[in-house]
Amino acid sequence: MNTQSPLGSEICLQNYGVTLKSGKIENQARGVFTIYLEAGTEPNGQRSTTEFLDNDSNTFKSNSIVNRLLSMKTKFDHKIHRVFISYKRTSNWAWFYDDKWQFSSVEIHDGNRQETYSFCPSTDFIKSGQTVDFNLC
Questions:
Q1: What is the pLDDT along the chain (137 residues), one digit of tens a residue?
Q2: What whole-number distance in Å separates Cα of residue 74 and Cα of residue 56?
Q3: Which of 99, 108, 94 is closest to 126 using CA atoms?
């Protein structure tokens, strides 16, 4: 949603719906997940700020779907073409929470354009301390 004041200046953040589809993995994950988006291509590409998807408040489970609202100041001039997600395990319970996680896909709903984009990971797992890029499927 992009709301403008009567003077024409933007007063709200850019909002994107994020759907995270977890793969089939034995354990579960808990920790800090962050995301940033890229739109356009070099040399005129844009990158968003890095935002929290989850700050160690939820447990990601196998074969689940999690929805988040991503609000940021970045207004993209072009369509989003890549997503980057980082994971950092915060629990010392290694036997209970895995040090890697798998998202089979990520969907981004761009409210301004009224379009949804589906992204597939470049690797099978996000290991703790790693950032993985997701490209258009």
A1: 455 545 555 557 788 999 999 988 878 888 899 999 999 877 678 999 899 998 888 888 889 999 999 988 888 888 899 999 999 988 766 567 778 899 999 999 998 889 999 999 999 999 999 999 999 99
A2: 25
A3: 99
Q: Which two tokens stand for residue 125?
A: 């797992």
> Is residue 16 a contact partner of residue 70, using CB atoms and an 8 Å limit?
yes
Amino acid at 120: C
Is residue 110 within 8 A of residue 48, CB to CB? The reply is no
Bridge partner residues of 51 (DSSP): 35
49: region left, alpha or beta (phi > 0 left; psi from -120 to 50 alpha):
beta
pTM of the full predicted structure? 0.84
Q: What are the CA-CA distances from residue 24 to residues 28, 83, 86, 105, 127 (Å)? A: 10, 21, 19, 12, 15
Determine the 3-state secondary structure of 14 from DSSP.
Answer: strand
Task: State the Rg of the chain over Cα.
Answer: 16
